[in-house]
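Could you help me review a protein record that somebody else here produced? My question to you is simply how this chain folds and whether the tokens agree. Thanks in advance; the entry in question is below:
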Amino acid sequence: MSAGFKVLSLTDRAAERIKAIMADADRPIAGLRVGVKNGGCAGMSYTMEYAEAQKPGEDVVEDRGVRVFVEPKAVLFLLGTEMDFTTNKLASQFVFNNPNQTSACGCGESVAITPVSPERLAASA
């Protein structure tokens, strides 16, 4: 990606939660891997897992002392997304504030995301 584009950014809350999760891991962790997969009633869902190392083709985002690896197929779906961590009386969860998201299912488990078009990408450069 061009230096002018930031695939993903983190809020302070998200960065602190990722640091805490990584500190509790049972093996050395290089960062968090984020992606998207097909599924759910709205069409797609976000994925997260421990990353022991960068895989070929992944973008690496370093933000607030945290390293996030973005799967290649997810980049155009996540471009400009802010990752947050929220806590309320019923749940604690990571939340993706994604400008490319067009809708979400009622349960919040899946979303519809339109990838960034090459024309929009070129216009933003």
About this structure: The chain has one domain: 8-124. The first strand starts at residue 8 and ends at 10.
